[in-house]
Here is the input.
Amino acid sequence: MKRLQLTEVFGLKPYRATFEDAKMVFRGDPSVPPSRFDPTSLRMFTPRLSVATWLGRRVAKRTIPLLNLFNRNPTPVEEGWSVKVTQARDFRGRQMTYDSHNGTDFVIPPGTVTVASAAGRVASIRREWNRGGLKLYLDHGDGLMTTHNHLARALADVGDTVERGQPVALTGYSGIDGFVTFPWLAPHVHYNVILGGVLVDPFAQAGETSLWREHNAPCPRPEGAAVETVPATVFDPERVQALLADLKDDRRRALFARIDDVTRRGWELLIESTVYPTRFETPEAGRLLYAQETAREPRLDLPFRAADFDDTGFADDLGYR
Here is the structure.
C-alpha cells in the first residue's frame, strides 16, 4: 500500500477548496454561524498523549484512548460550533467533552486501519476541511448510520457493501482541527453515530441501551464471526422530498435535487442535516425521513481490527486528562 503523505494526513488537497472551507470556520456563511473559542478550549490539549501518538506510539498498547465523548448537554446549534467548555457533560456525568462535540474521539496514530463497526454500505465520502476533513459514511440499515472523520485515505468506494470488521479507510487528522493544533491535540478518528436521522451517543447512561454490542465497552469484531446480511435502506420518496424542501440553501437544494437515486439523495440530505443543521428550517431535520422513532439496539463493534486492538479506555482514567 502506498505510504501516506502529509498532505493526506492533514487533508490539504485540493488547496483552493481547503482555503475556502477554512474561511467558513471563522467567518461563517449566511446559514452557518462562525465557530466559537475561549480559554476553556485549551482543555482539549493533551501534549503527552498527542506527541506520542503523532510519533506513531500506542500509549496504552492494545487499548485505544478515548479523548472526547458525546456531549449530552450541547449548546444551541444556532449559536455556532463551540469548542468552549461551558455546559459539557459526557454519559458518565464528567466533562471529557466540549460544548458542541457530537461524537466519540478514538486516539490513534495516523495510518491506522479503521473498519466497519457493522455490515453496511458506503453511503458517501466527503472532503470538508472545515468540518471533519475526509469523512466516510456507512449506512447499516434500519435507521443506523456511522461516520469516520479526520481520515487520510478511503479504502472503499461509494456504493460498496462492506462486512463487519472490513477495512474502510486509513486514519489521519485531516481538517482544520489537526492542522492548527498540531502537535498539541492528539490525532484521532471522530466517530459519529446517526440513529433515526439524528446524532446520538453510542454509549449508554443509566436507563438507556448501549449501541455497542459489548455494553459500553466497544470491542473488535471477533475472529471467525459469521458474515451478516446488510439490511436494505429504502426511503419514502415523499419524505426525501420533504427534507429537500426543508433545506434553506437554494444552491445546496439544487445540488441534491440532481441526484436521481432516491436512497442516495436521502443519504446526502441526512448527512447535510447533521453536519450543517442551521441550513434547515426544522430542528433535527433528519427525523423527517422516518415515520417513527428508531429504537436503540446493541449493533456496533469497535471500528478497529482485532489484530491491532482489544478495547478502549477513557483518557482521564488513563491519566491523560
Remarks:
- DSSP finds seven helices and eleven strands in the chain.
- The helical segments are 6-10, 15-27, 47-54, 176-181, 237-246, 250-257, 262-275.
- The chain has two domains: 6-227+297-314, 237-290.
- The CA atoms of residues 107 and 188 lie 4 Å apart.
